[in-house]
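pasting Large ribosomal subunit protein uL4 for the record, 205 residues
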Amino acid sequence: MKLDVIKLDGGKAGSVDLGEEIFGLEPRADLLHRVVRWQRNKAQQGTHKVKTRSETSYSTKKIYRQKGTGGARHGDRNAPIFRKGGIYKGPTPRSHAHDLPKKVRQLGLKHALSAKVKAGELVVIDTAAGDGKTKTLAKQIKDLGWKRALIIDGAQVDADFAKAAANIDGLDVLPSMGANVYDILKRDTLVITKAGVEALEARLK
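structre below
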């Protein structure tokens, strides 16, 4: 599959061959859903916590005598039935992460890339380099019509380019090893450098 390569100033820079086994698959929503769910659950902090009846601050004195009141039998006010008492079976700190086979994660990334190609939202650029000025890069992005874009570079991201992109709203820059399904699907436009294409094909083959 051939795709035109452009420069950041909008000029043409030849074409590139994209591997059908990575960029030409029929996207599967179930695979993408599984990988995104795995990513988001792994990123969830899981620091939610409530106090049980042994942790609430209240007197442990028996509130009234056991018999003869005509009411229910109670010990202290920390019981879950009372206001400001402990919470029964509430959330405790835990990890929300679950396992997902490496092959499924790799396949999910291939399907995410293929989905962008099929939707016409994949752009290949020559290089991601600049003078480190946000104003210059912002004008180039605006001229190209990118509003919410993810730029994937090769093994390393150019320091000046990353500095210029840092303050542009809706623009993310990642090295090829940082490419992931959630970030790819979240953005309207996926931009990959030629070095990024080579690195992704080497990673996913």
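The CA atoms of residues 38 and 100 lie 7 Å apart.
The domain at 2-44+98-204 is CATH 3.40.1370.10 (Ribosomal Protein L4; Chain: A;).
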